[in-house]
Every structure is written in structure tokens, then in C-alpha cells.
Amino acid sequence: MLDIDFVRAQFPAFSEPSLEGQAFFENAGGSYTCGAVIDRLTRFYTQRKVQPYAPYEASCLGGAEMDEARRRLAAVLGVDDDELSFGPSTTQNTYVLAQAFRQFLQAGEAIIVTNQDHEANTGPWRRLADEGIDVREWRIDPSTGHLDTDDLEALLDEKVRLVCFPHCSNVVGEINPVVEITALAHAAGAFVCVDGVSYAPHGLPDVGSLGADIYLFSSYKTYGPHQGIMTIRRPLAEVLPNQGHVFNAGSLYKRFTPAGPDHAQVAACAGMVDYIDALAAHHGTDSAGVHDLQRDHEVRILQPLLDAVKGRNAVRLLGPEDAAGRAPTVALALNRSGEEVAAELATLGIMAGGGDFYAGRALAGMGVKEETGVLRLSFVHYTSEQEVTKLIEALDRVL
């Protein structure tokens, strides 16, 4: 089992006096940062804050740290070093990719998007309709929020060039079968773009084994600095038009970053792997084993929360009732504003959120009123069993 005390000792937030007594349940909006990332960021800003890759020592060391972050993250994700790129955010990275596909696709060709997505992974793709691209919507089940692969197959034909979908939704929480969906898309001759923002905080996936052509996630939700991380597999990256400076066209990892990345934050991302390595060493496993430890812990402490809310009057749990099939991102549709309930929970030491969370299409698809939105309760592997108990007791008081 995951050593929760060791885990929490790696995060300065858990020893911060101003946060004492507060249970953090809005991790889907951004996680606490691990100490290894903070240490690397501090070191870069104090010792390496110069233009990298010049011949003098501070510059050489800065560039080496940036290269280290890319190399080590790529290894964890199961892709080549130059198949991983950094950008200011996943939203920005997706927008840049959509511009590349805008040039790549021909009028009359098609892409598939879902209404389960966060707006960042659907809005930029939908705008391709302005160029004559056929944008087809893979729709969720209105009662469950589930994406049925039979419905996807009905949308696929020889005109579809790209299928975009989330590894899991930031309000539905259900973990989608990426390998199966990718196989269906590839069999139809389409590329695949997976939004991993809501899944990656629960264990970085082996993108290589998933088969996705594009996989995107946010480092600020995976215990790191505010960056977007994207993997683009070589066969696709080499055929998409260059979106970077003309002199960077020959560099795979620079082709889709029009502006220079934040050097310090890129370098600090190596601290995310430092953290994974520390967990692996402490538990006697590897990075894949760390992923499984994180998920096992989350599933174990999530089920009591699901059981506590699924049968309540005037409370609708979005997504699966079984913790094994979902991420610990729990959205509740109530008969009043989710923001109001989140504010009440705050007085009881629970940090949660309310609103639509940029998933307005998914909520509308399930009949959730825009004016009330949802109450969202989200956690990750550093959340303790005691904090979940505290949350359930607080919900008993406010619902």
C-alpha cells in the first residue's frame, strides 16, 4: 500500500501553517507542488537564470537541466526524447496543434470531437469548421455521461482524419478506454489526440503503450510548475506543418512551440520525475508501479465518498458509482448552486469548487442547469483517508 505519510512529507503545503486544518478537494483545478520541483525552480532562478545553451557554465547548466526534464519525462511516458514538447498551457498547445491541422487538412475531410471534453480540447478543433472541415460530435449518454464506442464507429469513415477525446472528463470522471478507441480510429485511417489533463494527475500513463498520436496534460496538475506538456509521435509530427520559427523546422520538439518556453519551469519539471523516483525507491518498485500505487490508494478511499453521495435525495452523482472505473473527480448536480455549497464547505475546512469548470457542453449534454452548475470534489493520491472522512462529515452538514 501507498505510504501516505511518506507521500505527504514530499509536499511543503502539508506543513504550511496557513493551510493547517484545510482539506484540499479541488485538485482537478491544480495540485500542490512537490518539494523537488520547488527546489529545482528555486535553484534555476538563483543560479541559472540566463539564456541557456551558451558556452559559459551557468548557461550550460541551465540548458542541461532543461534537456534532463525532457529526457526523463519522455522515458516515464514511453516516448522518444524529441517527441515531447513544452508549452505555456495545454490550452495553448491544443490551439497550436489545431492551427497545424488547419493547414494539413483539406475541405471536406472530417474530425471527431466529443461533448464530454473540457473546452480546451474541443473548442480549437471545432473552429476548423470555418475552413470547411466536417466536425462530427461523438455524444455522451445523457443519463450517465458515458461515451459508447459503438457510437464512435458509426461516425468513422474514410473522410475522418482525427479523433479527439479525453482520457477522462473533468466532470464525468469515467476513464475512457484509450487503447480501444485508438485502435478503432487507426483502423479507419485517423490520427488520435487524447486530452490527458484530468487523468495524468492520477498516475502518468505509458503513452507509448496507449498508442495515441498526441497526448496532452498539464504539469501544474501533476505536482509541477504551470506548463503544458504534449507528446506527438514522430509519424504525425513529421507530416504536420511547422508552427515554430522557420529555423526550428528540423527540430521535432520545437515545431509546435511558436514562442520560447519558460526555461525555469521546463527545468523544474524534472522534479516531477524526482518525485516519482523517490516514491519508487521508497516502495521498492518502478514508475509503472508508482502509477498503480497511486491508483490503488485513490480507488480505496474514493469508494466511501461515492457511496455517501450516490443515494442522497436532490443529489445527482455524475459518472460511474464504482471507483475502479473512474478518477477521483466527483461532480454533484444539486438543486442549488454548486458555488454556494462550495462556499459553505469552505467554512468547514473543505477546499472545493463549484461551477461548470469549462465543461459546459458535457453538463448541458446531461441536462445540468447552467445557472447551478455542479459541486466538484476532486483529490489525488496524497489525500488521506481521514480527509475523505472529514469531507463526508462536512457534506452531511451542508447537503
From TrEMBL:
Coiled coil: none annotated. Transmembrane segments: none annotated. This is Aminotransferase class V-fold PLP-dependent enzyme. It comes from Thalassococcus lentus. Pfam families: Aminotran_5. SUPFAM superfamilies: PLP-dependent transferases. PANTHER family: CYSTEINE DESULFURASE, PYRIDOXAL PHOSPHATE (PLP)-DEPENDENT ASPARTATE AMINOTRANSFERASE SUPERFAMILY. GO terms for molecular function: transaminase activity. InterPro entries: Aminotrans_V_dom, PyrdxlP-dep_Trfase, PyrdxlP-dep_Trfase_major, PyrdxlP-dep_Trfase_small. Keywords: Aminotransferase, Pyridoxal phosphate, Transferase. Residues 24-391 form the Aminotransferase class V domain.
